[in-house]
Design a protein that fits this description.
The protein has about 100 residues and is mainly α. The protein has three helices and no strands.
């Protein structure tokens, strides 16, 4: 394995691909969260509150991961925009 002596900068396209993958992952997590919460509701109604609580904890963990994934996607999009120079004109215009 060769080691690159310098850190390469990602391209705007690769950053956008990363952002899209993070968004897809966040969408999948949302589906899992909905499924887990539905199962927890059913367990709670059948008197299995402890098992329902465990499922809720997992759903909450997924919710935190989902938020992190969306934040990573947003950050990657912003970096891609800066690399492409999008928004520089808007910033200059706002400064005047």
């Amino acid at each position: 394995m060769t080691v690159t002596p310098y850190i390469t900068r990602p391209s705007a396209e690769s950053l956008r691909d990363f952002a899209n993958r993070r968004r897809k992952h966040a969408d999948w997590l949302q589906l899992e969260i909905n499924k887990l919460r539905k199962q927890a509701r059913g367990l709670r109604q059948s008197g299995k509150a402890f098992q329902a609580m465990n499922l809720e904890q997992i759903a909450n963990k997924h919710e935190r991961n989902r938020i992190s994934a969306l934040n990573a996607a947003l950050s990657a999009e912003e970096k891609a925009d800066r690399l492409e120079g999008v928004g520089e004109f808007d910033l200059k215009e706002a400064a005047q």
